[in-house]
Every structure is written in structure tokens, then in C-alpha cells.
């Protein structure tokens, strides 16, 4: 188990280095090859030559590429100092770059936005797991019945409907129409009920999409598992049917669900752009959306890196959970 | 095809037991039919037998002959896992220790499972849950029926593993099924089945998935345990060899029905059904030279949806034309006593069968 | 404002959610809107009630929270660095200038009035020396007095472009055209006040010495980039995150792209400030990524107004016009939307070919593409925005764009083509920003009408975020053969100089970041601008403005589409609302009040 963990961690670390280099390459080298001067995109459209030169100096854009990559890398671990034009900016470790558009280090932006995204993703995940898996199991157990068909039609709708549609619809009905909730985001530290009220629609909307997918995969997996010999064995032991389903069949059904969950959470932690934008939640997704609109390259790089890290981390967690769930994995 | 008697009453298996049932296990006219889109699958179609405590019954037949469904029927598992599908149609009676199971409360039957009657399956690798340790699975089986704490249950598990011959049981109890060899797994499976001292043990192809050498060990183990626990045992197999030394009685199934039944030595040495001859011919024998060709039963098992009219075995029977008037293809033969405690269902006369057996079949075996 | 926020993007996904829109409309407006023209003390003031006039001035009460929403954060809240119009407007909450626009509706708002200064400048006859005296009792948010040195330091920051990029540089160009001063951060003098063009003989007096006169200089001093900044509070590039307040409000919290909250500056004294009323206790700005969301909040009454002031999204606009017309104003934005013909690309070096396009275009169709008369604006007939002194609006229509030729005049266009020597037409390329669907629509309209007169135009949609690099480079324009460029322009300050100088003056043809797309090199126009900056009387300036506009139009360098108008929302609760020419038809933020403070 330990060896397995170490192997996975090592692989993750290697991936991390590769990701940083690829991301850096995409955002800093590709424009250079394309002949676009990055410095101008930091100062806005009325680019005063002095301003462009100032940015170039501060960011070290005139340095050779390898030096830039190294500076970026080093910044993550020991922090970085940007100076130019008589102005000095300290970017404390972990320095994931500095946004000259909004005059703030990228890392605090990420840490500020991350909890919102995390809360959104986790809250929705709880909902979609509970409802998606329950619906999937019920569908499997009642296969072919009206319930099953109804649930699968709803699931199909859930998978097919874009989130901005369901999001806008739910806002229109519950926030603006019935006025049950005020969908204005309130930070958790300000008011729990306000926060909860603001999060509930995004949770439900996002969960609806995923619950649909999870219901479908749960149903299919459960049907497959129910045909396994060990389920028959469990019954032959005299176990109650709910134990057979709830314990023996569920544990196996969880394996593919967990894989999906890991991937989905990883991706969502990188920012549920549509959901955050629709509900105006100040998460990473909105940060990156705004950054794209404002051409705020460092923020885009930062969020991309964090997204990659989140996916990487989620993979790692899935791998570990795999080993916990399925003892056979520990050997290989 | 001749329409079969729906009542099933025509099945001529002699019944000695009263309705209250004197035998420990008595199955009467059991029918298990599965409705499907293609038609009604008559997996078991009128099966009767008895079994006493301490005795072993071998149910022999090819796959698809209904032997596994029979065992599942007794366990009350015939329709488990049939979610959403049309329910199996079951009729007849299954008496276990004086209780009729088919009409009993399902929860009552559930409580019997694992305690009064338990089962060993063919492939222990797939029959054991891959995510739980052997110990956990045995503990679970024990604690369903015994209100004991986990520690006690685990001691019991270790004891059982020890009993079935697993070395270092206190360590292996925490192993996962995939960490065991095939034989060990089956031993563990047996340990799990016997953890509650069941009075009836059903072993469904317990050795089929195992190496030949291991097979013998497992069979020995089953026999020893039976002697020790005094359970009634049903061994289900397609291989007569498996039951040769183990079974007191043998029941040969074909197409969902019993074609021959009797004391083991009778069925082995004086078989009175051509299908049994075929099975005997295809039985590998340790006392024979392996070079010698086995004689398999030609053809394939009948469709359980469209069971051949007349004798279900007639399309494969080399002697189908021995009886006159094409009777094998029109009239279904009933079980008839051919000797004391020995029944067979064949249109051929006793004499014809005796002659064919002694002159044509036995010398080749 | 030459830097525009990208309002185009917001329009994209709306078609897809049109189905939801219908639901939204009925759901959000269950109470029914009052679209009457008469205002009430509780409801909306009425359609256009605040357009160039004050709506419900007397209903404003002290206190409460004024809630702004926005789909776009400011480029920077640093007074030196901001260039967005709404930022300049909003900056008056927390910054004061020597002079500023009057807090009055319409054209009067564009007139200057003393703010920190006791009066408008005492200007010497040669127009080269401006002297101001500071008012008594003007203070920073920590209670210290605002001195002339603070004003000088604030202005000096404009020179530090390498650190404080983004803002307008007019003051730098006018006070130090040779670029001798290196900015306060590289200033070797002890007090960092080394800029020679400004004298501060005492804490109350500030004197500006212009190397050359510029009649709009005082307009430039009214820009927020001329706000005082106190040296010990200057956090350089980070100043925009928490500017030190000289106005009635100070930064309470700011999270870029998320929210901004201003609270009362206790040190600010009403007596020291003749123009700011400071009604609300608190001002909040919430930013949205989805403009649609913003409009929903406005319609729902959660927010009082849009800080961006660039008009509602098409969907919100439709709902609002139908259900809440009384909450809307339809002012002129100050922007002109147009097509421009670079003379470097043949055959647009020939004025007749340029005229052919102007005559041949279907101007009504172009107006429709811009959103129609209400949301798009009136058909543009010349190149001076109606809010600028000297503008004549549709009265000056040399090509009868809004008149006889409004549906396109094929005959006249073909005549012009013949005169150009291209009787059978020609091929060209229309360059348009890909992130502005409305501009793309105008390009398509133009393409269609040009086809009728034999001009085959290909549309090239370029990366809108790279505008300055792509069409701002004359070399690139020539290389790509962009004969027609679709653009828009608005004034930095309400004068012909604040609007047209970079567009029409030959001195402003730059290798990159060029805005004189037509490459106008007209000595007459250059001369008129020179004359304009030295003309100090308003009547003379107005006359020159008109003249410059005429010269530009006579050159047929431009095909104006519309004098842009937009639809802006004001909540029922908003009082003392009016649009001002000072900020191109935006509501004047600084004196907004609430009817029932909450």
C-alpha cells in the first residue's frame, strides 16, 4: 500500500513539473512565436512605449526563455520580486505570477476564489451522488418499470440541457419569480444562511447535470454487478436484500462512480465556469472568465495550473481510494 | 410436439412420504419456469426427490439440465436478481425439516439460508466478494444468524478456516480472495458455508473450476465434514466421477426432469437410461489409461423453451428407434421403478436396456 | 474614451437563452411595470425623465446604500491609471480635482466648475500660465489638509507610465511635450516634485506653465488623472486597489472583479465641497460575469444602476422597454459608430471611391444593425458627437446620409465610381473586430449594399483584443488591404480636441497604436487644431470645432453609422438622477441619492 502510494506520488510530481512547463509554454512561448508582444497585452490598448517597456522589464520578458521558465518555477517555491520604473512588487511564495491588470499576485486571487469553487463543487457532488446514485440504484432494481423509464428520461434531459439554461430557468423561477431565495452570493464568513441560500440553486443546477450522468452509470453498473456470483453468495448467506444491495452490490458499483467523481471534481475545482457565471459566484471559473475578457494572462496561467493540479490531485485521490476500495489494486 | 400435461401430476415418481413429510428434505413436483420474450423457459419441469440427514444426493446433468435452478429453487434464490424481469413461476412443494418453503414467508426462508441450508458455488473466485477479506465474509455469514460480537465471530472464522485445512488460519483470515489459490478459495467458501452448521449443504459444481488434484482434496473435505456435521448434502455436477464416491443417491437430470434416480451403486453399475450411459461414457476414470478416448454424449442439450416432444432425450438417443411406433417421439416416458429404489424414465423395455447395457455399453467403459 | 469595454461579448449567448427570457420576463415582472411618463415618489420617474434633466431631485434623502452593478470592473481605480469613462465618473466619489464638470444635467454638466480650487484658473493672456488657489478645509481621509503639492504629485504620477500605465497622458503631452521629466519614482529631488512645469509657491497655490498654449488645458485638469495623490500614501502600482480618498467617500473594501464598497469619509466636510451632495451612506458595486445576470438584478430591483453605463443587454432591454419603460433613459452616448477608409489602401486613396461607399451604403440598414433608432442611435451624418460644443447633429449632413440617400443611392454611388475610374466596381476588405457582434452585423450590411454597386467586399474578422496591433499598425492595414475598417470612438472630454485630435491630426499617425486610421494628412485640419488650442474664447473654439468637422467630412474619410444612443436603467428608488455630457450621456454618479434609504 505504501509502495503504491509512493509510486503514485512520484508520478504526480513528475506530471506537475510537466504541466507547469506546458502551461508556461502555451501562454508565454506560443505568443512569442506568433509574433505577439505579450508586454502590450499587459498595459491595455493605449500602450505608451514607456508602459510597455516597464512591463517588459518587470516581467523579465526580455530574458531568454529558459530564464523566464526558471524564474517562474523559482517563484512558486521562493517567491519573486518584480521591479521596474522605481516600483518594486513582492510576490510571496508560492508565487504563481502577478497580474498587472488588476495589480495583485495570482496566488491570493486563487486562494480567495478557490473556497467558493470548492464549496460549489463539493456541495453539488454530495447532491448528485445522493440523488444520482439513488436514482440509478432504484432504476436498476425496478428495471423496465415506469419508474425506471421516467427516471432515465429525466436523466437524459439532465445530461442534455445546458447549465445556463437550467440555471437561468431556476433563477427565473425561484429567485426572481417566487422570490424564495435571494441568489446574491454572500460569503460564508458573513452569514451562513445567506451563503447557503445563495449556493442552493447553483448546487441543485450543477448537481442536476451530474446526477443525470451518475444515475445512468449507476444503473448500468448496478445491473451488471447484480448478476455477479458474489451477490448470489451474499443472498445465499441469508443476508437481507437491502444489505445485499446496499453493502455488497454498492461497494462494487462505487468503483466506476468514484473514478468519475474524481475526474469530475478535479475538473470542477478548476472552475465551474458556466455555473459560476450564471449565478455570479466569485469562484475560479469566474476569475478565469474575467481574466480572459481582460486579457489578464497571469491569472489565466494561474487558474490553468491550479486546474491541472486539481485534476492531478483528484487522480491521486481516486487512485488511493481505489486501493482502499479494491484490494486487488494494491498489488499491481 | 405433444402438449405436455400442465398439471404435472402425470409425473410418475413414486412418493412414499406423506404431505407432512417424513424425509428431511423432500421436493415434490417442483417446477421452475421463467417467462421470457422468446417463450417460457422450463428450467425445472416436475422434479421430485427426498434426502435424509447425513446422506448425500448427487444431481448430475449437463449444463442447462436444470440442476442449478433446482438447487437455487431449494435455497429460494431462483428469482433473486430478477429485478424488473418477469417473475419466475414456481410450483410444487419443497419440504425442509417439516416446513414447506415455497409457501413460507420469504423472510423466514431468508433466515434459513446460511443457517439451515447453505451453498457452495462453482467458481469460488467470482462467488467471493473481491473487496472483502475472507474473514470479513465468514464473519458476516456467522453474524447474520448468531448474535455475537465481531471478535467471537472472527475466532469462529479462524476455527472454520483451520477446520477446512487452511494453513495459518489466524493470518489468512485477513487475506482477500485474490490472495488465495483456487483450492484455498474453495476451502474458504466451504468454511463460510459451514460456519453455521447447516443441516443441508448444497454444493453446486464445487470442483469444476479446480485442478484435478485439488478436486479430490475438496471432495474429501466435503465428505469428512459431512460425516462430522451430519448434514444432508446435495452435490450438483455434470461429472459423474465427482459423485461416484461421495453420493448415496444419484439423480440424473435431463431437460429439466429426472431421467434416472437411485442408489449410487445402482446408477453406476446398473444404469437404466441411455443418457446415464452417455454420462458414464464421458466420465474420466482414474483407474483407466488416460489415452483411452472418452465417449461423450453426442449432440447438444435441448432448448428449455422447446423441449422435444416425447422423450426429451430422443434426438440424441442412439436407441430412440428401439421402442415401437415412434413412441419415443410422441409420448413422454415417466419414471418407473426398474429395481428396488431405482427409477428410470425410458420407453425401452427393461430387457432391452439390460441387454444394451451389458452387451454394448459396459464393456466399453 | 478611447478604451472601450467589450460590450459585444455579452450579446453572444442570448439567442440561446431566448426561451428563458420569456419566462424571466413574466416571472420578474409579476408586479407589472409603470411605464407612464409621470414620476412618483415611490415608482419610476418615467421614460427619459433623467435624460438631460434631473429626475426627482427633491426626493433624494440622506443615507442608505446605493447599489451599483457592473459587468466589467474598472481598468484601474487609480485616478492616474483609469481610462474607462465610468471609472472617471465614479472616481469623483473618492477624489477631487482642481476643477470638474458641473453637477448639472446635459450640456451644463460639461461646463467646468471649481472643486478643490476656489475658482476657475487665472489664465495669463498668452494662455500659457494657469494659476489656482486651493479652498480652505479641503482634507484627505485622515483629516490632513490637501495641499498644492499633493495636487502636483498626483499630476506627476502621469509621467510614471512605466509603472502606472493605462490612463490618459494629455497632461504629460501638454506640460512636458519633450518628455524631459522622468516621473516621481525616478525623481532625484528630495521632495519628488521635480516637474518644472508646475510651481507650488505655497500650500494653497499651484501654477501651471505650459510650453505652448492649449485651450483645453483646463478640461485636462478636470480629468481624474489630475487628482491629488499624497506621496506617503502612494502605493505606486497598487494604488488602484485602495486609493487614498480626497472625496466624500473612501474605499472600504475592494476585490477586483468581485465587489467594491465605499463608505463615508468622515474627514470630508460638506462646507469645503460646493458640488458633491454625498447622499448615501454607503456605495456598493457588485460585478457580474454575465451581463444578463446584471440586467436581471436591475429589473428585479436588487441594484440601482449599472456602473458601466453602456446600455442594457438586448434581452434585458427588450424586457425593460416592455415592462418598465419608466425606469429607462435613452441618452446619446457620445460615441460615433462608423466605417473609416485608410488612404493607403487603393482605391480609397481616391476620394470619389470613398464617396461611392458613403452613397452606396444603406444607412437605415446600418442603423438597424446597430440596434435601431432607440438602442442603436440616430443615423450618423457627420463625425462630431452631438454632445460636443460645435456639433450640429443631423443638421449637418453633407452626404444626405439621413436624408435622400438614407436607403443608399445606387445612382450617385455609381457616378462616384465612374469619377474614381472604377466604373465596374472593385474588390476590397472590411476589417471588423470579431468580439463585437453588432459591428460584424454592420459589416455584413455594408457588404450587402456595396455588392449592389459592384464593390465586392470580403469581411475579415480579426481578434478584437489585438486591435491596436492589427488595425493600429498602418503597415499591417496596407498589407492586409483593409480598405474599410469598422470602428467606434468617443470623446475623452467634451471638445473637438478630446474627440478628434488623435483621429484626424497628421501628428497622430503612429506606427503602432495608431488611431488616425484614415491616415489624414491635411494641413488645413492640422492648422485648425493648432488654431483651436490657442483660441481661448468659447465662441471661437466652437466655431473651429464645427470647421474641423466640416473639413473631415469633406474629405469623405468616414462613413458614420450612428450617433450612438443606449438604454440605461435607473431603479425606482434612485433620486436626483440626470445624464451629463461631461461623461457622454452617463448618469452623473456623484450626486445620486435614494428616495427611501435602506
From TrEMBL, chain A:
GO biological process: transmembrane transport
One GO CC term, this protein: plasma membrane
Domain ABC transmembrane type-1 residues, every copy: 114-322
Main location group: membrane
Compartmental location: Cell membrane
Database matches in InterPro entries: BPD_transp_1_N, MetI-like, MetI-like_sf
Superkingdom assignment: Bacteria
Keywords: Cell membrane, Membrane, Transmembrane, Transmembrane helix, Transport
Residues passing through the membrane, by range: 9-30, 116-141, 153-175, 195-215, 257-279, 299-325
PANTHER family named among the record's database cross-references: INNER MEMBRANE ABC TRANSPORTER, OLIGOPEPTIDE TRANSPORT SYSTEM PERMEASE PROTEIN APPB
Protein name in the entry: ABC transporter permease
Automatic annotation (TrEMBL), chain B:
Alphabetical list of InterPro entries matching this protein: AAA+_ATPase, ABC_Ni/Peptide_Import, ABC_transporter-like_ATP-bd, ABC_transporter-like_CS, Oligopep_ABC_C, P-loop_NTPase
Residue ranges the record marks as coiled coil: none
A Gene Ontology BP annotation from the UniProt entry: peptide transport
Residues annotated as transmembrane: none
Membrane topology reported for the UniProt record: Peripheral membrane protein
Listed GO CC annotations: plasma membrane
Alphabetical list of PANTHER family matching this protein: DIPEPTIDE TRANSPORT ATP-BINDING PROTEIN DPPD, OLIGOPEPTIDE TRANSPORT ATP-BINDING PROTEIN APPD
Record bears the keyword Acetylation: no
Organism: Streptomyces lacrimifluminis
Main localization category: membrane
Superkingdom, natural source: Bacteria
Annotated keywords: ATP-binding, Cell membrane, Membrane, Nucleotide-binding, Transport
SUPFAM superfamilies per record: P-loop containing nucleoside triphosphate hydrolases
GO molecular function terms listed in the Swiss-Prot or TrEMBL record: ATP binding; ATP hydrolysis activity
Protein's name according to its UniProt entry: Dipeptide/oligopeptide/nickel ABC transporter ATP-binding protein
Highest classification ranks of the organism: Bacteria, Bacillati, Actinomycetota, Actinomycetes, Kitasatosporales
Pfam family, one: oligo_HPY
Record localization: Cell membrane
Domain ABC transporter: 27-280
Family assignment from sequence similarity: Belongs to the ABC transporter superfamily.
From TrEMBL, chain C:
Range of residues in the leader sequence: 1-30
TM region(s), chain numbering: none
Superkingdom, natural source: Bacteria
Location of the Solute-binding protein family domain: 111-506
Pfam family, any one: SBP_bac_5
InterPro entries in UniProt: Peptide/Ni-bd, SBP_5, SBP_5_dom
The entry's keywords: Signal
Keyword Cell division: no
One GO biological process term: peptide transport
Keyword Protein transport: no
Gene Ontology cellular component list: ATP-binding cassette (ABC) transporter complex; periplasmic space
GO MF, one annotated term: peptide transmembrane transporter activity
Name this polypeptide is given: Peptide ABC transporter substrate-binding protein
Organism of provenance: Streptomyces lacrimifluminis
Amino acid at each position: 500500500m505504501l509502495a503504491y502510494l509512493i509510486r503514485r506520488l512520484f508520478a504526480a510530481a513528475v506530471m506537475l513539473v510537466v504541466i507547469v512547463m506546458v502551461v508556461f509554454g502555451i501562454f508565454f512561448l506560443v505568443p512569442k512565436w506568433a509574433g505577439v508582444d505579450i508586454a502590450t497585452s499587459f498595459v491595455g490598448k493605449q500602450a505608451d512605449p514607456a508602459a510597455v517597456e516597464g512591463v517588459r522589464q518587470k516581467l523579465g520578458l526580455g530574458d531568454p526563455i529558459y530564464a523566464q521558465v526558471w524564474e517562474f518555477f523559482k517563484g512558486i517555491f521562493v517567491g519573486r520580486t518584480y521591479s521596474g520604473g522605481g516600483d518594486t512588487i513582492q510576490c510571496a511564495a508560492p508565487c504563481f505570477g502577478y497580474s498587472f491588470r488588476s495589480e495583485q499576485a495570482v496566488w491570493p486571487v486563487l486562494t480567495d476564489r478557490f473556497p467558493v469553487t470548492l464549496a460549489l463543487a463539493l456541495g453539488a457532488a454530495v447532491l448528485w451522488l445522493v440523488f444520482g446514485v439513488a436514482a440509478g440504484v432504484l432504476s436498476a432494481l425496478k428495471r423496465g418499470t415506469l419508474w425506471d423509464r421516467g427516471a432515465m428520461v429525466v436523466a437524459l434531459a439532465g445530461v442534455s440541457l445546458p447549465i445556463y439554461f437550467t440555471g437561468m430557468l431556476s433563477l427565473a423561477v425561484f429567485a426572481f419569480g417566487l422570490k424564495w431565495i435571494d441568489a446574491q452570493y454572500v460569503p460564508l464568513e458573513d452569514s451562513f444562511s445567506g451563503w447557503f441560500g445563495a449556493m442552493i440553486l447553483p448546487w441543485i443546477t450543477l448537481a442536476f447535470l451530474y446526477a443525470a450522468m451518475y444515475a445512468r452509470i449507476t444503473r448500468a453498473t448496478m445491473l451488471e454487478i447484480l448478476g455477479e456470483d458474489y451477490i448470489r453468495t451474499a443472498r445465499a448467506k441469508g443476508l437481507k436484500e437491502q444489505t445485499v444491495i446496499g453493502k455488497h452490490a454498492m461497494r462494487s458499483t462505487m468503483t466506476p462512480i468514484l473514478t468519475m467523481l474524481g475526474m469530475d471534481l478535479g475538473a470542477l475545482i478548476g472552475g465551474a465556469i458556466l455555473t459560476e457565471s450564471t449565478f455570479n459566484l466569485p469562484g475560479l471559473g469566474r476569475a478565469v472568465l474575467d481574466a480572459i475578457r481582460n486579457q489578464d494572462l497571469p491569472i489565466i496561467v494561474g487558474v490553468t495550473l491550479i486546474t491541472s493540479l486539481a485534476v492531478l490531485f483528484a487522480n491521486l485521490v481516486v487512485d488511493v481510494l481505489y486501493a482502499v476500495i479494491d484490494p486487488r489494486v494494491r498489488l499491481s | 410436439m405433444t402438449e405436455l400435461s400442465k398439471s404435472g401430476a402425470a409425473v410418475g415418481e413414486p412418493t412414499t412420504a406423506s404431505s407432512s413429510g417424513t424425509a428431511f428434505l423432500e421436493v415434490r413436483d417442483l417446477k421452475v419456469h421463467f417467462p421470457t420474450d422468446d417463450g417460457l423457459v422450463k428450467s425445472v419441469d416436475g422434479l421430485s426427490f427426498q434426502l435424509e440427514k447425513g446422506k448425500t444426493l448427487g444431481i448430475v446433468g449437463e449444463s442447462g439440465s436444470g440442476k442449478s435452478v433446482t438447487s437455487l429453487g431449494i435455497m429460494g434464490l431462483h428469482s433473486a436478481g430478477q429485478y424488473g424481469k418477469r417473475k419466475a413461476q414456481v410450483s410444487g412443494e419443497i419440504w425442509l425439516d417439516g416446513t414447506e418453503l415455497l409457501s413460507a414467508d420469504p423472510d423466514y426462508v431468508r433466515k434459513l439460508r446460511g443457517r439451515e441450508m447453505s451453498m457452495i458455488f462453482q467458481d469460488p473466485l467470482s462467488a467471493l466478494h473481491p473487496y472483502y477479506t475472507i474473514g470479513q465474509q465468514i464473519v458476516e455469514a456467522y453474524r447474520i444468524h448468531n448474535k455475537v460480537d465481531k471478535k467471537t465471530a472472527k475466532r469462529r472464522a479462524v476455527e472454520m478456516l483451520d477446520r477446512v485445512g487452511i494453513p495459518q488460519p489466524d493470518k489468512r483470515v485477513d487475506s482477500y480472495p485474490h490472495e488465495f489459490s483456487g483450492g484455498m478459495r474453495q476451502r474458504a467458501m466451504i468454511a463460510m458455508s459451514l460456519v453455521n452448521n447447516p443441516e443441508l449443504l448444497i454444493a453446486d459444481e464445487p470442483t469444476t473450476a479446480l485442478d484435478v488434484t485439488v478436486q479430490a482434496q475438496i471432495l474429501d473435505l466435503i465428505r469428512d465434514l459431512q460425516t462430522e456435521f451430519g448434514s444432508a448434502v446435495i452435490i450438483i455436477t455434470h461429472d459423474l466421477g465427482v459423485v461416484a464416491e461421495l453420493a448415496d443417491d444419484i439423480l440424473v437430470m435431463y431437460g429439466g426432469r429426472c431421467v434416472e434416480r437411485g442408489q449410487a451403486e445402482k446408477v453406476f453399475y446398473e444404469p437404466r437410461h441411455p443418457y446415464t450411459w452417455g454420462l458414464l461414457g464421458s466420465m474420466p476414470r482414474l483407474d483407466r489409461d488416460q489415452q483411452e478416448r472418452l465417449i461423450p454424449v453426442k449432440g447438444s442439450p435441448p432448448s428449455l423453451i422447446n423441449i422435444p416432444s416425447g422423450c426429451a432425450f430422443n434426438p440424441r438417443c442412439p436407441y430412440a428407434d428401439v421402442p415401437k411406433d415412434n413412441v419415443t417421439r410422441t409420448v413422454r416416458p415417466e419414471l418407473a421403478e426398474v429395481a428396488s429404489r431405482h427409477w428410470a424414465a425410458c420407453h425401452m423395455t427393461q430387457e432391452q436396456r439390460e441387454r444394451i447395457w451389458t452387451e454394448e455399453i459396459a464393456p466399453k467403459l | 474614451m478611447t478604451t472601450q469595454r467589450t460590450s459585444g461579448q455579452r450579446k453572444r449567448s442570448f439567442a440561446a437563452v431566448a426561451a428563458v427570457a420569456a419566462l424571466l420576463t413574466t416571472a420578474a415582472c409579476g408586479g407589472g411595470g409603470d411605464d407612464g411618463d409621470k414620476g412618483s415618489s415611490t415608482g419610476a420617474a418615467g421614460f427619459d425623465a433623467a435624460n438631460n434633466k434631473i429626475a426627482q431631485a427633491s426626493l433624494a434623502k440622506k443615507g442608505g446604500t446605493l447599489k451599483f452593478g457592473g459587468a466589467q470592473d474598472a481598468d484601474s481605480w487609480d485616478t492616474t491609471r483609469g481610462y474607462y469613462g465610468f471609472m472617471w465618473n465614479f472616481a469623483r466619489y473618492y477624489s477631487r480635482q482642481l476643477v470638474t464638470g458641473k453637477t448639472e444635467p446635459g450640456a451644463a454638466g460639461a461646463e467646468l466648475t471649481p472643486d478643490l480650487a476656489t475658482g476657475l484658473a487665472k489664465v495669463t493672456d498668452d494662455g500659457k500660465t494657469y494659476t489656482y488657489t486651493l479652498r480652505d478645509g479641503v482634507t484627505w481621509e485622515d483629516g490632513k489638509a490637501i495641499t498644492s503639492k499633493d495636487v502636483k504629485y498626483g499630476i506627476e504620477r502621469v509621467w510614471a507610465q512605466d509603472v502606472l500605465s493605462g490612463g490618459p497622458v494629455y497632461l504629460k503631452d501638454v506640460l512636458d511635450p519633450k518628455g524631459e521629466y522622468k516621473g516621481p519614482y525616478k525623481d532625484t529631488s528630495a521632495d519628488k516634485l521635480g516637474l518644472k512645469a508646475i510651481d507650488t509657491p505655497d500650500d494653497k497655490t499651484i501654477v501651471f506653465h505650459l510650453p505652448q498654449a492649449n485651450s483645453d488645458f483646463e478640461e485636462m485638469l478636470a480629468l481624474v488623472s489630475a487628482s491629488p495623490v499624497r506621496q506617503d500614501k502612494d502605493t505606486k502600482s497598487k494604488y488602484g486597489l485602495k486609493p487614498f480618498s480626497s472625496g466624500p467617500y473612501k474605499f472600504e473594501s475592494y476585490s477586483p472583479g468581485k465587489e467594491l464598497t465605499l463608505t463615508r469619509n468622515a474627514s470630508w466636510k460638506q462646507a469645503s465641497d460646493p458640488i458633491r451632495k454625498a447622499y448615501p451612506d454607503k456605495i456598493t458595486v457588485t460585478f457580474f460575469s454575465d451581463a444578463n445576470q446584471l440586467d436581471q438584478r436591475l429589473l428585479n430591483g436588487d441594484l440601482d444602476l449599472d456602473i458601466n453605463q453602456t446600455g442594457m443587454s438586448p434581452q434585458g432591454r427588450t424586457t425593460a422597454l416592455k415592462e418598465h419603460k419608466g425606469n429607462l433613459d435613452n441618452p446619446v452616448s457620445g460615441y460615433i459608430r462608423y466605417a473609416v477608409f485608410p488612404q493607403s489602401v487603393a482605391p480609397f486613396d481616391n476620394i470619389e471611391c470613398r464617396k461611392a461607399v458613403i452613397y452606396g451604403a444603406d444607412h437605415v440598414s446600418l442603423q438597424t444593425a446597430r440596434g435601431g433608432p432607440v438602442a442603436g442611435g440616430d443615423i450618423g451624418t457627420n463625425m462630431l458627437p452631438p454632445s460636443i460644443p460645435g456639433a450640429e447633429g443631423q443638421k449637418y449632413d453633407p452626404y444626405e446620409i439621413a436624408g435622400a440617400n438614407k436607403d443608399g443611392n445606387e445612382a450617385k454611388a455609381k457616378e462616384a465610381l465612374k469619377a474614381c475610374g472604377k466604373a465596374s466596381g472593385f474588390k476590397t476588405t472590411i476589417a471588423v473586430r470579431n468580439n463585437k457582434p453588432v459591428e460584424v452585423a454592420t459589416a455584413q450590411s455594408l457588404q450587402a449594399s456595396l455588392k449592389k454597386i459592384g464593390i465586392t467586399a470580403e469581411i475579415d474578422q480579426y481578434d478584437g483584443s489585438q486591435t491596436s496591433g492589427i488595425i493600429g499598425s498602418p503597415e499591417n492595414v496596407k498589407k492586409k488591404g483593409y480598405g474599410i475598417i469598422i470602428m467606434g470612438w468617443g470623446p475623452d472630454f467634451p471638445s473637438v480636441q478630446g474627440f478628434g485630435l488623435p483621429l484626424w491630426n497628421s501628428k497622430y499617425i503612429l506606427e503602432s497604436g495608431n488611431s488616425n486610421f484614415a491616415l489624414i494628412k491635411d494641413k488645413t485640419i492640422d492648422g485648425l487644431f493648432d488654431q483651436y488650442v490657442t483660441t481661448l474664447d468659447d465662441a471661437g473654439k466652437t466655431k473651429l470645432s464645427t470647421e474641423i468637422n466640416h473639413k473631415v467630412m469633406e474629405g469623405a474619410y468616414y462613413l458614420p453609422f450612428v450617433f450612438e444612443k443606449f438604454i440605461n436603467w435607473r431603479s425606482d428608488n434612485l433620486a436626483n438622477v440626470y445624464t451629463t455630457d461631461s461623461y457622454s450621456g452617463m448618469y452623473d454618479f456623484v450626486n445620486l441619492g435614494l428616495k427611501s434609504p435602506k
